Amino acid sequence: MESSDEESVHRRRVHLRPFTLRSPAPVTLHLLPCEVPVSRPAPVGRFFTPAIRQGPYGLEASFRGRSLRGEEVAVPPGLVGYVMTEEQGEVSVGKQDFSEGSEEDHEVMESPETLERDFDRFIGATASFSSFTLWGLETIPGPDSKVRGALTWPSLAAAIHAQVPED
Amino acid sequence: MDLSELERDNTGRCRLNSPVPAVCLKEPCVLGVDEAGRGPVLGPMVYAICYCPLSRLADLEALKVADSKTLSESERDRLFAKMEEDGDFVGWALDVLSPNLISTSMLGRVKYNLNSLSHDTATGLVQYALDQGVKVAQVFVDTVGLPETYQERLQQRFPDIEVTVKAKADALYPVVSAASICAKVARDQAVRNWQFVEKLQDLDTDYGSGYPNDPKTKAWLRKHVDPVFGFPQFVRFSWRTAQSILEKEAEDVTWEFLDQGSDPSHSCNLCRNCSNARSFNPLCQLGIKPVPWSCRDTTNPLVPQQELPDKLFYFTVLEVGSPRPGY
Protein backbone atom coordinates (compact mmCIF):
# COMPACT_ATOMS: atom_id res chain seq x y z
CA MET A 1 0.00 0.00 0.00
CA GLU A 2 1.31 3.45 -0.81
CA SER A 3 2.09 5.70 2.12
CA SER A 4 -0.28 8.45 0.98
CA ASP A 5 -3.13 6.01 0.88
CA GLU A 6 -2.26 4.67 4.32
CA GLU A 7 -2.35 8.18 5.62
CA SER A 8 -5.84 8.83 4.33
CA VAL A 9 -7.03 5.55 5.77
CA HIS A 10 -5.68 6.57 9.14
CA ARG A 11 -7.25 9.96 8.87
CA ARG A 12 -10.79 8.65 8.68
CA ARG A 13 -12.18 5.24 9.40
CA VAL A 14 -15.70 3.95 8.94
CA HIS A 15 -16.95 1.80 11.78
CA LEU A 16 -19.88 -0.53 11.77
CA ARG A 17 -22.06 -0.55 14.89
CA PRO A 18 -22.29 -4.27 15.59
CA PHE A 19 -25.27 -4.07 17.94
CA THR A 20 -27.41 -2.56 15.19
CA LEU A 21 -27.17 -5.85 13.32
CA ARG A 22 -28.94 -7.81 16.03
CA SER A 23 -32.60 -7.23 15.29
CA PRO A 24 -33.34 -4.51 12.75
CA ALA A 25 -36.92 -4.42 11.52
CA PRO A 26 -37.60 -6.00 8.12
CA VAL A 27 -38.38 -3.57 5.30
CA THR A 28 -39.74 -3.65 1.76
CA LEU A 29 -37.19 -2.50 -0.79
CA HIS A 30 -37.36 -1.61 -4.47
CA LEU A 31 -34.27 -1.39 -6.63
CA LEU A 32 -35.02 0.84 -9.62
CA PRO A 33 -33.09 0.99 -12.90
CA CYS A 34 -32.39 4.66 -12.37
CA GLU A 35 -30.64 6.96 -10.01
CA VAL A 36 -32.01 9.95 -8.14
CA PRO A 37 -28.79 11.66 -7.09
CA VAL A 38 -30.10 12.87 -3.75
CA SER A 39 -30.79 11.12 -0.48
CA ARG A 40 -34.13 12.07 0.98
CA PRO A 41 -37.31 10.43 2.16
CA ALA A 42 -39.72 9.49 -0.61
CA PRO A 43 -43.43 8.66 -0.26
CA VAL A 44 -42.99 5.15 -1.70
CA GLY A 45 -46.05 3.84 0.10
CA ARG A 46 -48.28 6.58 -1.29
CA PHE A 47 -47.00 6.88 -4.86
CA PHE A 48 -45.27 3.68 -5.88
CA THR A 49 -46.55 0.65 -3.99
CA PRO A 50 -50.28 1.19 -4.62
CA ALA A 51 -49.65 1.35 -8.39
CA ILE A 52 -47.88 -2.03 -8.64
CA ARG A 53 -49.85 -4.53 -10.70
CA GLN A 54 -49.34 -8.21 -11.31
CA GLY A 55 -49.09 -8.47 -15.09
CA PRO A 56 -48.82 -11.54 -17.28
CA TYR A 57 -45.02 -11.28 -17.36
CA GLY A 58 -44.30 -10.16 -13.80
CA LEU A 59 -44.86 -7.07 -11.71
CA GLU A 60 -45.76 -3.82 -13.45
CA ALA A 61 -45.28 -0.27 -12.29
CA SER A 62 -44.07 3.04 -13.60
CA PHE A 63 -41.75 5.75 -12.37
CA ARG A 64 -41.66 9.26 -13.80
CA GLY A 65 -43.78 8.12 -16.72
CA ARG A 66 -41.53 5.23 -17.66
CA SER A 67 -42.64 1.66 -17.63
CA LEU A 68 -41.04 -0.77 -15.16
CA ARG A 69 -41.19 -4.56 -14.95
CA GLY A 70 -40.17 -6.20 -11.73
CA GLU A 71 -39.57 -9.43 -9.89
CA GLU A 72 -38.84 -10.51 -6.34
CA VAL A 73 -35.22 -11.37 -5.66
CA ALA A 74 -34.31 -13.32 -2.53
CA VAL A 75 -31.08 -12.73 -0.64
CA PRO A 76 -29.09 -15.96 -1.09
CA PRO A 77 -29.23 -18.55 1.70
CA GLY A 78 -26.75 -17.93 4.51
CA LEU A 79 -26.80 -14.17 3.91
CA VAL A 80 -28.93 -11.37 5.27
CA GLY A 81 -29.58 -7.94 3.82
CA TYR A 82 -29.16 -4.77 5.84
CA VAL A 83 -30.06 -1.17 5.12
CA MET A 84 -27.11 0.80 6.41
CA THR A 85 -27.18 4.48 7.33
CA GLU A 86 -24.49 6.75 8.58
CA GLU A 87 -24.89 8.34 11.98
CA GLN A 88 -25.53 12.03 11.54
CA GLY A 89 -24.28 15.02 13.43
CA GLU A 90 -21.60 15.19 16.07
CA VAL A 91 -21.05 11.66 17.15
CA SER A 92 -18.62 11.41 19.96
CA VAL A 93 -17.14 8.18 21.04
CA GLY A 94 -18.43 6.65 24.24
CA LYS A 95 -21.81 8.41 24.23
CA GLN A 96 -25.32 7.09 23.60
CA ASP A 97 -24.52 4.86 20.68
CA PHE A 98 -21.94 3.01 22.67
CA SER A 99 -24.12 2.39 25.67
CA GLU A 100 -25.24 -0.83 24.06
CA GLY A 101 -21.72 -1.90 23.25
CA SER A 102 -20.05 -4.69 25.17
CA GLU A 103 -17.52 -4.34 27.97
CA GLU A 104 -14.80 -5.34 25.57
CA ASP A 105 -15.57 -2.34 23.37
CA HIS A 106 -14.99 0.03 26.26
CA GLU A 107 -11.68 -1.56 27.01
CA VAL A 108 -10.59 -1.13 23.44
CA MET A 109 -11.60 2.53 23.55
CA GLU A 110 -9.70 3.29 26.65
CA SER A 111 -6.44 2.01 25.26
CA PRO A 112 -4.15 4.70 23.81
CA GLU A 113 -4.23 3.06 20.37
CA THR A 114 -8.02 3.35 20.28
CA LEU A 115 -9.64 2.03 17.14
CA GLU A 116 -12.47 4.55 17.11
CA ARG A 117 -11.70 8.25 17.18
CA ASP A 118 -14.25 11.04 17.54
CA PHE A 119 -13.65 12.20 13.97
CA ASP A 120 -14.35 8.76 12.53
CA ARG A 121 -17.58 7.88 10.84
CA PHE A 122 -20.07 5.33 12.04
CA ILE A 123 -22.66 3.33 10.20
CA GLY A 124 -25.32 1.04 11.49
CA ALA A 125 -28.17 -1.10 10.21
CA THR A 126 -31.58 0.54 10.36
CA ALA A 127 -33.48 -2.27 8.72
CA SER A 128 -33.04 -5.75 7.33
CA PHE A 129 -34.38 -7.62 4.33
CA SER A 130 -34.46 -11.15 3.02
CA SER A 131 -35.76 -10.18 -0.41
CA PHE A 132 -36.34 -7.10 -2.52
CA THR A 133 -38.11 -6.14 -5.71
CA LEU A 134 -35.77 -5.69 -8.63
CA TRP A 135 -37.13 -3.46 -11.39
CA GLY A 136 -36.00 -3.20 -14.99
CA LEU A 137 -36.84 -0.50 -17.50
CA GLU A 138 -39.65 -1.96 -19.63
CA THR A 139 -38.39 -5.53 -19.23
CA ILE A 140 -37.97 -7.90 -16.31
CA PRO A 141 -34.30 -7.92 -15.26
CA GLY A 142 -34.30 -11.73 -15.35
CA PRO A 143 -31.65 -14.29 -14.44
CA ASP A 144 -28.94 -12.56 -16.48
CA SER A 145 -29.31 -9.24 -14.67
CA LYS A 146 -26.26 -7.73 -13.01
CA VAL A 147 -27.83 -7.77 -9.56
CA ARG A 148 -28.64 -11.47 -9.80
CA GLY A 149 -25.13 -12.09 -11.05
CA ALA A 150 -23.75 -10.19 -8.08
CA LEU A 151 -25.79 -12.26 -5.66
CA THR A 152 -24.22 -15.47 -6.99
CA TRP A 153 -20.80 -14.02 -6.15
CA PRO A 154 -20.64 -14.98 -2.41
CA SER A 155 -21.15 -18.68 -3.14
CA LEU A 156 -18.80 -18.50 -6.12
CA ALA A 157 -16.18 -16.73 -4.02
CA ALA A 158 -16.50 -19.33 -1.28
CA ALA A 159 -16.08 -22.08 -3.84
CA ILE A 160 -12.97 -20.64 -5.48
CA HIS A 161 -11.30 -19.87 -2.16
CA ALA A 162 -12.08 -23.24 -0.59
CA GLN A 163 -9.24 -25.60 0.21
CA VAL A 164 -8.77 -28.13 -2.54
CA PRO A 165 -8.01 -31.51 -0.98
CA GLU A 166 -4.75 -32.95 -2.26
CA ASP A 167 -5.00 -36.33 -3.83
CA MET B 1 -72.06 5.62 -19.00
CA ASP B 2 -70.75 2.76 -16.92
CA LEU B 3 -67.01 3.28 -16.46
CA SER B 4 -66.65 1.04 -13.40
CA GLU B 5 -64.19 -1.21 -15.20
CA LEU B 6 -61.92 1.79 -15.81
CA GLU B 7 -62.37 2.95 -12.23
CA ARG B 8 -61.22 -0.45 -10.95
CA ASP B 9 -57.91 -0.15 -12.81
CA ASN B 10 -56.92 2.96 -14.73
CA THR B 11 -53.22 2.22 -15.13
CA GLY B 12 -53.48 0.68 -18.60
CA ARG B 13 -56.18 0.69 -21.27
CA CYS B 14 -59.78 -0.21 -21.01
CA ARG B 15 -62.22 -1.23 -23.74
CA LEU B 16 -65.91 -0.73 -23.24
CA ASN B 17 -68.77 -1.34 -25.61
CA SER B 18 -72.52 -1.31 -26.09
CA PRO B 19 -74.31 -4.50 -27.01
CA VAL B 20 -74.11 -5.05 -30.78
CA PRO B 21 -77.52 -4.30 -32.34
CA ALA B 22 -78.78 -7.43 -34.12
CA VAL B 23 -79.45 -5.46 -37.31
CA CYS B 24 -75.74 -4.50 -37.51
CA LEU B 25 -74.83 -8.18 -37.85
CA LYS B 26 -76.95 -8.48 -40.99
CA GLU B 27 -76.99 -5.16 -42.79
CA PRO B 28 -74.02 -3.20 -44.16
CA CYS B 29 -73.02 -0.56 -41.64
CA VAL B 30 -71.36 2.82 -41.56
CA LEU B 31 -68.84 3.36 -38.77
CA GLY B 32 -67.33 6.59 -37.45
CA VAL B 33 -64.08 7.00 -35.49
CA ASP B 34 -63.15 9.94 -33.29
CA GLU B 35 -61.22 10.75 -30.15
CA ALA B 36 -61.42 13.03 -27.14
CA GLY B 37 -58.70 14.26 -24.82
CA ARG B 38 -55.77 14.25 -27.19
CA GLY B 39 -54.32 17.59 -26.10
CA PRO B 40 -54.73 17.71 -22.32
CA VAL B 41 -51.82 17.07 -19.99
CA LEU B 42 -54.22 15.36 -17.57
CA GLY B 43 -56.35 12.26 -17.81
CA PRO B 44 -57.02 9.63 -20.43
CA MET B 45 -57.41 9.87 -24.18
CA VAL B 46 -60.59 8.19 -25.30
CA TYR B 47 -61.09 6.64 -28.72
CA ALA B 48 -64.61 5.83 -29.82
CA ILE B 49 -66.37 4.14 -32.69
CA CYS B 50 -70.04 4.49 -33.39
CA TYR B 51 -71.91 2.53 -36.03
CA CYS B 52 -75.34 1.92 -37.49
CA PRO B 53 -76.80 0.29 -40.62
CA LEU B 54 -76.53 2.49 -43.74
CA SER B 55 -80.30 2.16 -43.98
CA ARG B 56 -80.74 3.83 -40.58
CA LEU B 57 -78.24 6.67 -41.04
CA ALA B 58 -81.11 9.15 -41.48
CA ASP B 59 -82.47 8.09 -38.07
CA LEU B 60 -79.08 8.79 -36.49
CA GLU B 61 -78.98 12.19 -38.21
CA ALA B 62 -82.47 12.87 -36.88
CA LEU B 63 -81.02 12.79 -33.36
CA LYS B 64 -79.23 15.99 -34.41
CA VAL B 65 -75.82 14.76 -33.40
CA ALA B 66 -73.09 17.29 -34.05
CA ASP B 67 -69.40 17.78 -33.45
CA SER B 68 -69.02 17.29 -29.70
CA LYS B 69 -66.94 20.46 -29.40
CA THR B 70 -69.93 22.58 -30.48
CA LEU B 71 -72.17 21.04 -27.82
CA SER B 72 -72.47 21.76 -24.14
CA GLU B 73 -71.80 18.99 -21.66
CA SER B 74 -75.50 18.56 -20.92
CA GLU B 75 -76.33 18.40 -24.63
CA ARG B 76 -73.70 15.72 -25.11
CA ASP B 77 -75.07 13.74 -22.16
CA ARG B 78 -78.58 14.05 -23.54
CA LEU B 79 -77.48 12.91 -27.02
CA PHE B 80 -75.56 9.98 -25.63
CA ALA B 81 -78.65 8.94 -23.65
CA LYS B 82 -80.68 9.10 -26.88
CA MET B 83 -78.14 6.90 -28.66
CA GLU B 84 -78.48 4.41 -25.82
CA GLU B 85 -82.26 4.48 -26.29
CA ASP B 86 -81.69 3.73 -29.95
CA GLY B 87 -79.54 0.76 -29.04
CA ASP B 88 -81.57 -1.39 -31.44
CA PHE B 89 -79.66 0.13 -34.35
CA VAL B 90 -76.79 2.23 -32.91
CA GLY B 91 -73.75 0.59 -31.40
CA TRP B 92 -70.54 2.00 -29.97
CA ALA B 93 -67.23 0.94 -28.47
CA LEU B 94 -64.52 2.79 -26.62
CA ASP B 95 -60.86 2.39 -25.93
CA VAL B 96 -59.76 4.44 -22.92
CA LEU B 97 -56.01 5.02 -22.96
CA SER B 98 -54.85 5.91 -19.47
CA PRO B 99 -52.42 8.80 -18.99
CA ASN B 100 -49.98 6.22 -17.61
CA LEU B 101 -50.19 4.25 -20.86
CA ILE B 102 -49.67 7.44 -22.87
CA SER B 103 -46.64 8.45 -20.76
CA THR B 104 -44.98 5.05 -20.86
CA SER B 105 -45.61 4.70 -24.61
CA MET B 106 -44.26 8.12 -25.51
CA LEU B 107 -41.30 7.85 -23.11
CA GLY B 108 -40.47 4.29 -24.10
CA ARG B 109 -36.96 3.25 -25.11
CA VAL B 110 -38.47 2.76 -28.53
CA LYS B 111 -40.60 5.88 -28.83
CA TYR B 112 -44.24 5.27 -29.61
CA ASN B 113 -45.62 8.66 -30.54
CA LEU B 114 -49.15 9.83 -30.00
CA ASN B 115 -50.03 9.68 -33.72
CA SER B 116 -48.99 6.04 -34.01
CA LEU B 117 -50.76 5.23 -30.77
CA SER B 118 -53.89 6.96 -32.12
CA HIS B 119 -53.74 5.19 -35.49
CA ASP B 120 -53.25 1.80 -33.89
CA THR B 121 -56.07 2.39 -31.41
CA ALA B 122 -58.48 3.44 -34.18
CA THR B 123 -57.46 0.43 -36.26
CA GLY B 124 -57.94 -1.80 -33.22
CA LEU B 125 -61.48 -0.52 -32.66
CA VAL B 126 -62.51 -1.06 -36.30
CA GLN B 127 -61.13 -4.59 -36.07
CA TYR B 128 -62.99 -5.03 -32.78
CA ALA B 129 -66.29 -4.16 -34.47
CA LEU B 130 -65.50 -6.66 -37.24
CA ASP B 131 -64.61 -9.31 -34.65
CA GLN B 132 -67.98 -8.75 -32.97
CA GLY B 133 -69.61 -9.49 -36.31
CA VAL B 134 -70.59 -5.95 -37.31
CA LYS B 135 -70.92 -5.77 -41.10
CA VAL B 136 -68.76 -2.70 -41.59
CA ALA B 137 -69.05 -1.33 -45.14
CA GLN B 138 -67.87 2.26 -44.73
CA VAL B 139 -65.54 3.87 -42.22
CA PHE B 140 -65.23 7.62 -41.60
CA VAL B 141 -62.34 8.86 -39.53
CA ASP B 142 -61.42 12.24 -38.12
CA THR B 143 -57.79 12.57 -39.07
CA VAL B 144 -54.74 12.55 -36.88
CA GLY B 145 -51.72 13.75 -38.83
CA LEU B 146 -51.90 13.77 -42.63
CA PRO B 147 -55.26 12.43 -43.83
CA GLU B 148 -53.79 10.99 -47.06
CA THR B 149 -51.24 8.70 -45.42
CA TYR B 150 -53.61 7.76 -42.62
CA GLN B 151 -56.32 6.84 -45.13
CA GLU B 152 -53.86 4.80 -47.17
CA ARG B 153 -52.81 2.86 -44.06
CA LEU B 154 -56.36 2.14 -42.99
CA GLN B 155 -57.44 1.25 -46.53
CA GLN B 156 -54.57 -1.20 -46.80
CA ARG B 157 -55.47 -2.77 -43.50
CA PHE B 158 -59.18 -3.04 -44.37
CA PRO B 159 -59.28 -3.58 -48.16
CA ASP B 160 -62.95 -4.62 -48.16
CA ILE B 161 -64.13 -1.45 -46.41
CA GLU B 162 -64.54 1.96 -47.99
CA VAL B 163 -62.35 4.22 -45.84
CA THR B 164 -62.59 8.02 -45.70
CA VAL B 165 -60.17 9.98 -43.54
CA LYS B 166 -60.79 13.70 -43.32
CA ALA B 167 -59.99 16.67 -41.18
CA LYS B 168 -63.08 17.86 -39.30
CA ALA B 169 -64.86 14.61 -40.09
CA ASP B 170 -66.60 15.02 -36.72
CA ALA B 171 -68.47 18.00 -38.15
CA LEU B 172 -69.04 16.49 -41.62
CA TYR B 173 -70.35 12.99 -40.93
CA PRO B 174 -73.09 12.29 -38.35
CA VAL B 175 -71.63 8.90 -37.52
CA VAL B 176 -68.30 10.56 -36.64
CA SER B 177 -70.16 13.24 -34.63
CA ALA B 178 -71.86 10.41 -32.74
CA ALA B 179 -68.46 8.79 -32.07
CA SER B 180 -67.08 12.15 -30.90
CA ILE B 181 -69.98 12.46 -28.44
CA CYS B 182 -69.32 8.96 -27.04
CA ALA B 183 -65.63 9.76 -26.67
CA LYS B 184 -66.19 13.14 -25.06
CA VAL B 185 -68.84 11.90 -22.62
CA ALA B 186 -66.52 9.09 -21.53
CA ARG B 187 -63.49 11.36 -21.23
CA ASP B 188 -65.38 13.96 -19.15
CA GLN B 189 -66.79 11.32 -16.86
CA ALA B 190 -63.42 9.59 -16.51
CA VAL B 191 -61.72 12.84 -15.54
CA ARG B 192 -64.51 13.87 -13.17
CA ASN B 193 -64.48 10.54 -11.34
CA TRP B 194 -60.77 9.80 -11.67
CA GLN B 195 -59.68 7.23 -9.11
CA PHE B 196 -56.18 8.24 -8.15
CA VAL B 197 -54.06 5.13 -7.73
CA GLU B 198 -51.80 7.10 -5.37
CA LYS B 199 -52.77 7.81 -1.80
CA LEU B 200 -52.56 11.57 -2.07
CA GLN B 201 -52.88 14.04 0.75
CA ASP B 202 -54.82 17.26 0.24
CA LEU B 203 -55.94 16.21 -3.21
CA ASP B 204 -57.47 19.11 -5.07
CA THR B 205 -59.87 17.95 -7.79
CA ASP B 206 -60.22 21.37 -9.33
CA TYR B 207 -57.81 20.74 -12.20
CA GLY B 208 -59.39 23.01 -14.73
CA SER B 209 -59.78 21.88 -18.34
CA GLY B 210 -56.65 19.78 -18.27
CA TYR B 211 -55.22 21.69 -21.22
CA PRO B 212 -51.61 22.81 -20.74
CA ASN B 213 -52.40 26.49 -21.31
CA ASP B 214 -55.13 26.59 -18.64
CA PRO B 215 -53.74 28.50 -15.61
CA LYS B 216 -55.87 26.33 -13.30
CA THR B 217 -54.34 23.18 -14.74
CA LYS B 218 -50.83 24.60 -14.42
CA ALA B 219 -51.46 25.60 -10.82
CA TRP B 220 -52.79 22.13 -10.09
CA LEU B 221 -49.67 20.55 -11.58
CA ARG B 222 -47.38 22.73 -9.51
CA LYS B 223 -49.32 21.94 -6.38
CA HIS B 224 -49.11 18.18 -6.90
CA VAL B 225 -45.43 17.74 -7.72
CA ASP B 226 -43.59 15.25 -5.57
CA PRO B 227 -39.82 15.85 -5.65
CA VAL B 228 -39.08 12.14 -6.13
CA PHE B 229 -42.08 10.62 -7.92
CA GLY B 230 -42.97 13.67 -9.95
CA PHE B 231 -46.70 13.57 -10.51
CA PRO B 232 -49.55 11.16 -9.90
CA GLN B 233 -50.23 8.85 -12.86
CA PHE B 234 -53.16 11.10 -13.77
CA VAL B 235 -50.60 13.40 -15.40
CA ARG B 236 -49.06 12.72 -18.80
CA PHE B 237 -45.36 12.87 -18.00
CA SER B 238 -44.52 13.06 -21.68
CA TRP B 239 -46.14 16.49 -22.06
CA ARG B 240 -43.71 19.39 -22.25
CA THR B 241 -45.69 21.31 -19.60
CA ALA B 242 -45.26 18.42 -17.18
CA GLN B 243 -41.60 17.97 -17.99
CA SER B 244 -40.69 21.62 -17.56
CA ILE B 245 -42.36 21.71 -14.14
CA LEU B 246 -40.42 18.59 -13.17
CA GLU B 247 -37.16 20.11 -14.36
CA LYS B 248 -37.68 23.02 -12.00
CA GLU B 249 -39.40 21.45 -9.04
CA ALA B 250 -38.36 17.81 -8.83
CA GLU B 251 -35.13 15.90 -8.45
CA ASP B 252 -33.17 14.80 -11.49
CA VAL B 253 -33.39 11.18 -12.50
CA THR B 254 -30.78 9.36 -14.56
CA TRP B 255 -31.69 6.09 -16.18
CA GLU B 256 -29.55 3.08 -16.92
CA PHE B 257 -30.33 3.31 -20.60
CA LEU B 258 -27.01 2.02 -21.76
CA ASP B 259 -25.07 -1.03 -20.78
CA GLN B 260 -22.55 0.32 -18.31
CA GLY B 261 -20.27 -2.70 -18.52
CA SER B 262 -17.65 -0.88 -20.52
CA ASP B 263 -17.78 2.33 -18.55
CA PRO B 264 -14.91 2.48 -16.03
CA SER B 265 -16.74 4.99 -13.87
CA HIS B 266 -19.19 2.24 -12.99
CA SER B 267 -16.59 -0.33 -12.13
CA CYS B 268 -16.61 -2.26 -8.93
CA ASN B 269 -16.29 -0.45 -5.67
CA LEU B 270 -17.62 -3.06 -3.36
CA CYS B 271 -15.25 -5.99 -3.60
CA ARG B 272 -12.03 -6.25 -1.72
CA ASN B 273 -9.59 -7.16 -4.44
CA CYS B 274 -10.76 -5.83 -7.72
CA SER B 275 -7.41 -5.35 -9.36
CA ASN B 276 -7.46 -8.58 -11.26
CA ALA B 277 -10.99 -9.68 -10.62
CA ARG B 278 -12.67 -7.17 -12.89
CA SER B 279 -12.69 -9.50 -15.81
CA PHE B 280 -15.09 -11.92 -14.16
CA ASN B 281 -16.40 -10.37 -10.97
CA PRO B 282 -20.08 -9.55 -11.60
CA LEU B 283 -19.97 -6.83 -8.92
CA CYS B 284 -17.71 -4.88 -11.23
CA GLN B 285 -20.59 -4.49 -13.62
CA LEU B 286 -22.81 -2.93 -10.99
CA GLY B 287 -23.30 0.72 -10.28
CA ILE B 288 -23.35 -0.01 -6.55
CA LYS B 289 -22.65 2.99 -4.37
CA PRO B 290 -19.16 3.11 -2.89
CA VAL B 291 -18.54 1.30 0.36
CA PRO B 292 -15.04 2.60 0.92
CA TRP B 293 -13.94 0.55 3.90
CA SER B 294 -13.68 -2.50 1.74
CA CYS B 295 -12.68 -1.23 -1.65
CA ARG B 296 -9.60 0.87 -1.42
CA ASP B 297 -7.44 -0.35 -4.18
CA THR B 298 -4.72 2.02 -5.28
CA THR B 299 -3.29 -0.49 -7.70
CA ASN B 300 -6.44 -0.39 -9.80
CA PRO B 301 -7.20 3.00 -11.32
CA LEU B 302 -10.65 1.72 -12.26
CA VAL B 303 -11.73 1.59 -8.64
CA PRO B 304 -12.95 5.02 -7.55
CA GLN B 305 -11.09 6.14 -4.44
CA GLN B 306 -14.08 7.96 -3.15
CA GLU B 307 -14.73 9.62 0.15
CA LEU B 308 -17.89 8.55 1.85
CA PRO B 309 -20.59 11.05 0.89
CA ASP B 310 -22.17 12.93 3.72
CA LYS B 311 -25.56 11.40 3.29
CA LEU B 312 -26.02 8.02 1.83
CA PHE B 313 -28.22 5.04 2.28
CA TYR B 314 -26.27 1.85 2.04
CA PHE B 315 -27.91 -1.08 0.49
CA THR B 316 -25.68 -3.99 1.20
CA VAL B 317 -25.56 -7.67 1.88
CA LEU B 318 -23.55 -9.05 4.79
CA GLU B 319 -22.76 -12.56 5.83
CA VAL B 320 -24.93 -13.81 8.69
CA GLY B 321 -23.18 -14.06 12.02
CA SER B 322 -19.89 -12.52 11.04
CA PRO B 323 -20.21 -8.77 11.27
CA ARG B 324 -16.60 -8.42 12.41
CA PRO B 325 -17.30 -6.53 15.67
CA GLY B 326 -15.64 -3.17 15.85
CA TYR B 327 -14.56 -3.70 12.26
From TrEMBL, chain A:
In this chain, the stretch annotated as Disordered covers: 90-112
Its BP terms in the Gene Ontology are: RNA catabolic process
CDD domains attached to this UniProt entry: RNase_H2-C (cd09271)
Q: Which PANTHER family match?
A: RIBONUCLEASE H2 SUBUNIT C (PTHR47063:SF1)
Q: Kindly state one GO CC term assigned in the UniProt record.
A: ribonuclease H2 complex
Matching entries from InterPro entries are given as: RNase_H2_subunit_C (IPR052863), RNase_H2_suC (IPR013924)
Name used for this protein in its record: Ribonuclease H2 subunit C
Q: Which organism is it from?
A: Sus scrofa
| Pfam families xrefs | RNase_H2_suC
Which N-terminal residues, if any, form the signal peptide?
none
UniProtKB/TrEMBL annotation, chain B:
Could you tell me one molecular function GO term of this UniProt entry?
RNA-DNA hybrid ribonuclease activity
Q: Does the keyword Signal apply?
A: no
UniProt record, GO biological process? mismatch repair; RNA catabolic process
* E.C. number: 3.1.26.4
Ranges for the RNase H type-2 domain? 28-251
Q: According to the lineage, what is the superkingdom? A: Eukaryota
Listed A to Z, the keywords are: Endonuclease, Hydrolase, Metal-binding, Nuclease
| Needed cofactors | Mn(2+); Mg(2+)
- Its catalytic activity? Endonucleolytic cleavage to 5'-phosphomonoester
- PROSITE patterns according to UniProt: RNASE_H_2
How, per the record, is the cofactor bound?
Manganese or magnesium. Binds 1 divalent metal ion per monomer in the absence of substrate. May bind a second metal ion after substrate binding.
Q: Which GO terms describe its cellular component?
A: cytosol; nucleoplasm; ribonuclease H2 complex
Residues that bind a divalent metal cation, according to the entry? D34, E35, D142
CDD domains in alphabetical order: RNase_HII_eukaryota_like
Gene3D superfamilies xrefs: Ribonuclease H-like superfamily/Ribonuclease H (3.30.420.10), Ribonuclease hii. Domain 2 (1.10.10.460)
The kind of enzyme this is, by top-level EC class, is hydrolase
Q: What does this protein do?
A: Endonuclease that specifically degrades the RNA of RNA-DNA hybrids. Catalytic subunit of RNase HII, an endonuclease that specifically degrades the RNA of RNA:DNA hybrids. Participates in DNA replication, possibly by mediating the removal of lagging-strand Okazaki fragment RNA primers during DNA replication. Mediates the excision of single ribonucleotides from DNA:RNA duplexes.
Q: Which family does it belong to?
A: Belongs to the RNase HII family. Eukaryotic subfamily.
What does the record note on quaternary structure?
The RNase H2 complex is a heterotrimer composed of the catalytic subunit RNASEH2A and the non-catalytic subunits RNASEH2B and RNASEH2C.
The protein depicted here goes by the name Ribonuclease
Species source reads Sus scrofa
Taxonomic lineage of this organism? Eukaryota, Metazoa, Chordata, Craniata, Vertebrata
What gene does this protein come from? RNASEH2A
